[in-house]
Write the structure tokens for this entry.
Amino acid sequence: MAVDILLGLQWGDEGKGKIVDVLAPTYDMVARFQGGPNAGHTLEFEGTKHVLHQIPSGIFHPHIQNVIGNGVVLDPIVFQIEMQKLQDRGVDAAKNLFISKKAALILPSHKVLDRVSEEALGSGKIGSTLKGIGPTYQDKIGRVGLRVGDILAPDFKDRYNKLVDRHRKMVEFYGQTLEIAEQEQQFFAALEYLRTLKLADTEYLINEALQSGKRILAEGAQGSLLDIDFGTYPFVTSSTTMVAGACTGLGVAPKYIGEVYGIFKAYCTRVGSGPFPTELLNEEGEAIRQAGREFGSTTGRPRRCGWVDLPTLKYSIMLNGVTQLNMMKADVLTDFDTIKVCTHYRLPNGDITDQLPHSLEAGELEPVYEELPGWRVDLNKIDLVDELPEAFKNYLSFIESHLHAPITIVSVGPDRKSTLKREAEKV
Ligand code: GDP
Ligand code: IMO
Ligand code: MG
């Protein structure tokens, strides 16, 4: 059996949580492999909306084992709150949740470091979610970080103090003082809770599941354009958001990778700073934001909105080996007479290309658009693929013909049920 991977092809918030939840019934295990509480994955069913930050989106299906993999950075405080919320809604999350002992721990001081380093960047700030992601991954790569398994060691407190001393000096370097007494109390209480859960060498759990023929779905966080290597650096997150991240973030050999589901919106959004070639800074962008309720699931910030950008999608598809595409939120574009699609970029020397230049900043390229007729039909009211309006079918075919991958899922609303599955056509 193989590990299938579902990941975002844009700048995050494509609708990963929704589709993991839709696909989950056909899987035995759902695993998160990177990121942490910077993620906000929304699921809607039976009239209720759930937002998950660190817990995999398979958690609502009682037969599924859910894994927080070694590549994740875990904030015990946020995690405990999330678990409590699930319990309040009658979900016994602890029963089917396994947490890697190798996952990195986010300390209260990491969150302070995130804030002070962002403040120091001034107008060049990344627009981080301030959840401590960057500083925690820095400590991991710098080989000084603490991991979930360490909380079981008798000398954990000493190691914690040593790391916090280091952070204190770093905060002072930024001209500020580290004051975290209250958060520390919460942190240690949350660790008490964490110790009662299933902390495991999840790489064994996953490989044993693979060998016994179980079906595993790896759930990406963020999106390919936020990847530390291939994203719009430095305006990226600090992890490998691509397929390769699932191998290192779960302990799965590349030969076991199966389907790769690439999710994208019928348009494009970004939250935080950084280049965004097709961004609409006009009333059209505002119309998308309102119709799509484009406000961050984690921070509530308004998301920047623009037209779909095929060169970036081609890039993400190439680097991830995407086998199936899922188009999300097409219902949001109902009110547009024409829909624009960026097919190429025009470079400063006049060349036209569908490849990404080193920088996506405004002065480095100009999007080249094709205009397609809008469909002017509320797609959310449609239950069968065959009933989709012709103009929308043309939009799908146009995109498939450029991306050379089949769009097998079309999502037309936030609810689990607003999902249309298409036969994979040859493209
Ligand atoms: P994720 O981080 O990739 O899981 O995505 P988010 O949950 O942050 O953002 C996606 C938002 O769009 C959520 O509010 C979803 O409920 C919503 N959503 C998902 N699919 C659709 C869709 O097809 N149509 C509409 N209108 N909303 C959707
Ligand atoms: P999901 O999984 C959208 C963005 C932040 C910022 C940059 C770095 O819900 O799609 P970080 O806190 O990681 O240091 O922030 O990345 N970002 C996201 N944008 N969706 C996310 O996750 C994101 N996680 C981080 O806004 O620009
Ligand atoms: Mg999100």
Notes: The two ends are 26 Å apart (CA to CA). The chain has a mean pLDDT of 96. The pocket of guanosine-5'-diphosphate (ligand 1) is lined by residues 8, 12-18, 40-42, 44, 292, 297, 328-329, 331-332, 411-414 (CB under 6 Å).
